[in-house]
Amino acid sequence: MYDEPYLETCCRSALHRVALAEPHGRPAGEKDRRCLTRLAAMGLVCDDAGGLFQLTEAGADRHARDVLRRGN
Question: Which of 8, 37, 42, 72 has the fewest CB atoms within 10 Å, i.e. is most exposed?
């Protein structure tokens, strides 16, 4: 049974941009701030002390499955 919340297209795109920004992180002031906040609430990204969003391990797994379509 699939029990993970659905990621809207905009949130999947934001997750991908965070993944591309590694290891530097994605600035908090970008247009996708609402999606980044939503992803942080889901534990897929975290807001570091410098105001940058970083990918978490759960976020990397979800990015691989939902964005890159790797694994199940």
Answer: 72
Task: Write down the H helix ranges in 22-69.
Answer: 33-41, 57-62
Q: What type of residue is 23?
A: P
Residue 28: CB atoms within 10 A of its CB come to 16
Q: How far apart are CA 44 and CA 58, in angstroms?
A: 5
Residue 1: pLDDT band (50, 70, 90) is: very low
| Residues 48-63 pLDDT 10s | 878 899 999 999 999 9
Cα distances (Å, whole numbers) of residue 29 to 3, 24, 26, 47, 52? 31, 15, 9, 12, 9
Ramachandran area for residue 25 (φ above 0: left; ψ -120 to 50: alpha; else beta): left
